[in-house]
Amino acid sequence: MTQSPEPAPRRRMLKGVRLVFNNGHSVVNGVLRDISDTGARVSVENGLALPDEVKLVLDEGGSHQCLVARRELKELGLRFL
């Protein structure tokens, strides 16, 4: 029986981010709640209205292409590609 890999350590954050999709034509503002080497948790106004793949753009610079791994009304769990 194989064990699932250990989750990557998360660093708590409270920083502004943008979720970009629709070939860069659509942007939703959010708040980065935590981040690890493999993903992030982001608060948004309406997580149900976003597509399954987004680009996470950090306000201080840097970005990650992401898949939505967990979706709630006000929160997304993102997995970095």
UniProtKB/TrEMBL annotation:
Pfam families with a match to the protein in the record: PilZ (PF07238)
GO molecular function annotation: cyclic-di-GMP binding
Positions of the PilZ domain: 12-80
Coiled-coil residues: none
Protein origin, superkingdom: Bacteria
UniProt protein name: PilZ domain-containing protein
